[in-house]
Design brief:
- It is elongated and about 65 Å long.
- It has a 5-stranded mixed beta sheet, covered by helices on one side.
- It is of the alpha+beta class.
- The chain starts with 15 loop residues before the first strand and ends with a helix.
- Helix 2 crosses helix 5.
- About 30% of the residues lie in helices and about 15% in strands.
């Protein structure tokens, strides 16, 4: 063990064991206390659909679902997800059958470069799960945390409205 500048013994980094349900599968993982959920997903689990856009919770590219609700994975520590059910873009399809929101994004050409698309889709599903997507204005306001540099906003809105309309 090495000493710190004040002569005290340095403590080794201690990882924490967490259990969660990730994309329908139970997982037990060891994580360091400062590991973000986004870094866990991308760097340790090779689930790279969620993107690191701003790393400050301002762009929504990292949006995933925790217990059906939208969260920014870049602002969430992995240890905060102990016991949670997490769904990423990789966990939405059922085999070859796409999630209805994924199908609607394709139908409405709701993406261009595709960088923001996984976060947009997860956010849209969370929005619907939250029961708050009642009209165009609500959808626009509640999706405002997900940025699209290509400007596909009207197509994204149309895709969400298509799914919401099909559920009513």
């Amino acid at each position: 063990m090495s000493a710190t500048p004040n002569g005290a013994a340095a403590q080794p980094f201690v990882s924490h064991s967490i259990c969660l349900r990730l994309n329908g599968k139970d997982r037990q993982l060891d994580v360091l206390p400062w590991t973000t959920l986004l870094d866990l997903l991308r760097e340790q689990l090779d689930l790279v659909g969620s993107k690191k856009g701003c790393d400050h919770g301002q762009c929504g590219a990292c949006t995933v679902l925790r217990d059906g609700k939208r969260i920014n994975a870049c602002l969430t520590l992995a240890v905060m997800c102990d016991g949670a059910e997490l769904t990423t873009i990789e966990g939405l399809a059922d085999g070859e059958q796409l999630h209805p929101m994924q199908q609607a994004f394709i139908k409405h050409d709701a993406f261009q470069c595709g960088y923001c698309t996984p976060g947009q889709i997860c956010s849209a599903i969370g929005l619907v799960n939250e029961g708050r997507a009642h009209d165009t204005a609500q959808i626009q306001e509640l999706m405002s945390g997900n940025l699209c540099r290509c400007g596909a906003y009207s197509n994204i809105r149309d895709a969400i409205e298509d799914v919401v309309g099909g559920e009513q």
